[in-house]
Design goal:
Elements (H helix, E strand, L loop, with lengths): L2 H11 L2 H7 L4 E5 L2 E6 L2 H10 L1 H7 L6 E6 L36 H12 L8 E5 L5 H14 L5 E5 H10 L3 H6 L3 E5 L9 H15 L3 E7 L10 H7 L3 E5 L4 H15 L5 H10 L3 H17 L6 H10 L10 H12 L3 H5 L5 H18 L3 H7 L5 H17 L1 H22 L1
Parallel strand pairs: 2-3, 4-7, 4-8, 5-6, 6-7
Antiparallel strand pairs: 1-2
Length: about 425
């Protein structure tokens, strides 16, 4: 069994939600007949032993692999080592470095602020609060800050979510003493503190210590702290002392860059059209990563070449399109209204110029707003070949670049389609 087969076995044994919690922090490597499992710290190792090890080993039973467990630092838990041999993995995940954070103008300020927090010893922004939707990169930047500080020789860092804090306080009587010995306190998923009210008092005590000692605090949360009605007034006030930045969800450009980068790393040869379709369909980078992983595993285990039908099947299985009531029929109605045609005219084999153009526009809008693949569009438009659909969409793309009136017309139709969706959902 190779690495790809191990990943497939895990996806069958654990749900995507379960894997999302711990898979990225677990180091896995296969050499010969040995699977080495590496933990970033002892508390993760202890958690894994209790919550996941039995199912993990059951998933790999019969694989012919023996499993070796390694923990980077069994004596100091989450403390970052003051010095590491060259090439040793970063303590909070080697992938979490600023150079790997895909950024555009929308998120330049949060990235620049995070880099300043990582580099400064004076804690100029304390606390530093990363806000944003799920999948916007908050956890990534939080860990990148901790990794960067470890490389700069910081004495110790604690990185964990509210659930981790709860487990720490449940298992150690000296939890507060342990945390105050750190130089960096980084807490993820702050909104989860609503489940553990007692932690508000502990965070308040930790906050006062870290602020007085000019030691950096970093928090990440969904939404804005100001909207958290469950926070104690004193804690809420302290969280608002420092700098809060809002991360925007990754746009199409960022998701496309991400997909291209991951394809290069895995040597997964996907066409530009397929990458664009994936970026359009999966708004969350975690789900996009999951789809790319499945495509890579399929390529490794089943066929070197992924056909259009196989590609469609994989996407349909993992479909994460936003909940929408918009349909092909509604887009057809909008286009027909614009061109004074009937839907059956567009779906027919007619080759009149106005019919062909209206058909091409409808295909383009369906791909843009519904994220349908070319074969799916071909089936929806009277069983046409996917190459015909590809030509149509590219034709409209070219026309709108060359003709401003066509570009305006497409914007008008898009707005009409989106208005239909909002009206139906309301």
């Amino acid at each position: 069994m190779n690495g790809a087969q191990v990943e497939v076995a895990l996806t069958q044994a654990f749900s995507a939600e379960e894997l999302d919690k711990w898979r990225a922090s677990l180091g896995l490597s296969v050499e010969g007949s040995v699977l080495t499992v590496r933990f970033p710290h002892r508390y993760f190792s202890d958690w894994f032993e209790t919550h996941a090890r039995v199912r993990f080993e059951q998933a790999l039973a019969g694989s012919g692999l023996s499993i070796a467990y390694e923990c980077r630092d069994r004596s100091r838990s989450r403390i970052v080592r003051e010095s590491r041999p060259a090439g040793q993995a970063l303590p909070f995940g080697s992938e979490f470095i600023f150079d790997n954070f895909l950024v555009n103008n929308k998120n330049y300020f949060p990235l620049a602020s995070a880099q300043e927090v990582a580099q400064s010893r004076e804690a100029p922004y304390n606390p530093f609060v990363l806000c944003g939707e799920s999948g916007s990169g908050k956890s990534f930047l939080l860990r990148a800050i901790a990794n960067a500080r470890s490389e700069h020789g910081a004495d110790g860092s604690y990185v964990g979510g509210i659930e981790d804090l709860h487990e720490l306080y449940s298992s150690r009587s000296d939890a507060r003493k342990f945390l105050t010995s750190m130089q960096l306190l980084a807490v993820d998923d702050l909104q989860e503190i609503a489940r553990y009210r007692y932690l508000q008092g502990e965070l308040l005590a930790l906050f006062d210590h870290f602020h007085l000692q000019r030691k950096q605090m970093v928090f990440a949360c969904t939404g804005k702290v100001g909207g958290y009605t469950f926070l104690a007034p004193k804690l809420k006030s302290r969280l608002e002392w420092g700098l809060s930045v809002m991360l925007k969800a990754p746009d199409l450009d960022i998701r496309t860059q991400y997909a291209q980068s991951r394809c290069r790393e895995r040597r997964l040869d996907l066409s530009k059209d397929r990458i664009l379709l994936l970026a359009q369909r999966f708004a969350d980078l975690r789900n996009l990563e999951g789809c790319l992983l499945k495509l890579w595993a399929y390529r490794e285990l089943v066929h070197d070449h992924i056909s259009d039908e196989e590609f469609d099947n994989i996407l349909n299985y993992l479909d994460d399109r936003a909940v929408t009531s918009l349909s092909v029929e509604q887009i057809l109605d909008a286009v027909c209204s614009k061109f004074n045609l009937k839907p059956e005219d567009i779906l027919s084999s007619g080759r009149r110029h106005d019919l062909v153009f209206a058909r091409q526009v409808a295909m383009y809008l369906c791909r843009k707003h519904l994220g349908l693949s070319f074969p799916e569009l071909g089936r929806a438009f009277g069983g046409r070949d996917h190459s015909t659909v590809l030509y149509s969409c590219r034709k409209v793309e070219q026309l709108q670049r060359d003709d401003k009136s066509i570009k305006n017309m497409l914007h008008e139709l898009s707005d009409k389609c989106l208005a239909m969706n909002e009206t139906t959902l309301a």
